[in-house]
Design brief:
Mean pLDDT: 92
Strand order of the largest sheet: 1-2
Distance between the termini: 5 Å
Oligomer: single chain
Order of helices and strands: HHEHEHH
Low-confidence stretches: none
Helix content: 40-55%
């Protein structure tokens, strides 16, 4: 994955990986209502242009994509594991993308 902020930003900036990364995050946000959070700057860091197409991702020093769900009714049953698998499975495409990127 990303060992430092420079590697993250190079990946976001890359035309090879950046658009797919943005699209995968956008799809997860649309599907789940997720928030993209993490330590971020107020402005796009230099040397990147202020109007960079992935400027919001470039501002992040670290990233989390998270969403909140009500406590499921199955929490005290054996079905809870399946419920967790279903919910966390929504992030599988993003995780697969992250682990496939160059370190």
């Amino acid at each position: 994955m990303f060992h430092d902020v420079n590697t993250w930003r190079e990946t976001v900036d890359s035309e090879r990986f950046g658009p797919e990364l943005q699209a995968t995050i956008d799809a997860l946000v649309t599907e789940t209502g997720a928030m993209v959070a993490g330590q971020e700057l107020k402005t796009v860091p230099k040397p990147f242009a202020a109007d960079h197409p992935r400027r919001e991702l470039l501002k992040h020093k670290m990233i989390q994509v998270r969403w909140i769900r009500p406590v499921p009714t199955c929490i005290s049953t054996s079905e809870f594991v399946d419920c967790c698998v279903d919910e966390l499975g929504r992030a599988a495409d993003l995780h697969r993308l992250f682990v496939s990127l160059p370190a």
